[in-house]
Amino acid sequence: MNQSVQALLFDVFGTVVDWREGVARDASAFLQRHPGARQDPYAFADAWRGRYSPSMEVVRAGRRPFAKLDQLHRENLEATLPAFGIDPASVPENELQWLNRAWHRLDPWPDSVAGLARLKARCIVATLSNGNTSLLLNMAKYAGLPWDAILGAEAAQAYKPMPQAYLRTAELLDLPPERICLVAAHNGDLAAARQCGLKTAFVARPREFGPEQQTDLVAEQDWDWVAEDLVELAGTFGC
């Protein structure tokens, strides 16, 4: 392990877990219970996720108080349903809650658990995610993710890529930013972290958005480390 890095913080959605497959899996079960609906679970997952960043931008811009991601996901879910032929008012509350918690039940990429375990043996491994605390805790239990700490937007009361998301997380760890490395599959996230003084590691996830993905296929800057997956990253760090 590079001795200057004491903590590795991880983007979670897309970097550590495969959100698209997990959401589509649960959306498929939900849509099948509504036979009149448009039966395209991957399109449903993409449409729901498409509202993710715009809903956070309203918070980032100060147009609404901080709201945790579960709440934003629920609002986005109800906004997505009509395009698939479903009136959200006609769906029982327990069904809506179950589907909204699809984000709590996401599977890790095949290398994630092994890679995290190796890295954890040498330094702090924690989340720096836009997901809220209970979501990330439930996901960790479901997927077997061995975090030392659950940190990110809710603890910082700021969504990435706002500087507060990175800097307040560093404060919570009582570490200077240069002793922290953000690991992410998204060049924009890494760029924002670098601006805050964090070190950076890019891990490619070329199928996060499905087989036709066009973004974040390669490292777009000279990040401190670049790896194909978390196991390779662990090897790069000597773990």
Give the structure's gist in a few sentences.
With 239 residues, the protein is α/β, with parallel strands linked by helices.
Please tag this protein with its features:
239 residues; alpha/beta; 5-stranded parallel β-sheet; 5 strands; 44% helix; 9% strand
Can you tell me about this structure?
This protein is α/β, with parallel strands linked by helices. Helix content is 44%, strand content 9%. The chain contains 11 helices and 5 strands. It has helices at residues 19-32, 41-50, 52-60, 69-80, 93-100, 112-120, 133-143, 153-156, 163-173, 187-195, 230-236; strands at residues 7-10, 124-127, 180-184, 199-203, 225-227. It has a 5-stranded parallel beta sheet with strand order 2-1-3-4-5, with helices on both faces. 44% of the residues are buried.
Layout of helices and strands, plus pairs?
Blueprint (H helix, E strand, L loop, with lengths): L6 E4 L8 H14 L8 H10 L1 H9 L8 H12 L12 H8 L11 H9 L3 E4 L5 H11 L9 H4 L6 H11 L6 E5 L2 H9 L3 E5 L21 E3 L2 H7 L3
Parallel strand pairs: 1-2, 1-3, 3-4, 4-5
Shape: globular
Structural classification: alpha/beta
Strand content: 5-15%
Radius of gyration: 18 Å
What's the total helix number? 11
The end-to-end distance, rounded to whole angstroms, is: 6 Å
Tell me the series of helices and strands, N- to C-terminal.
EHHHHHHEHHHEHEEH
Major sheet size, sense and barrel closure: 5 strands, parallel
Poorly predicted regions: none
The helix content, as a percent range, equals 40-55%
Average of the residue pLDDT scores:
96
| DSSP, total strands | 5
Strand order of the largest sheet: 2-1-3-4-5
Protein name: Haloacid dehalogenase type II
Pfam families: Hydrolase
Keywords: Hydrolase
InterPro entries: 2-HAD (IPR006328), HAD-like_sf (IPR036412), HAD-SF_hydro_IA (IPR006439), HAD_sf (IPR023214), S-2-haloacid_dehalogenase (IPR051540)
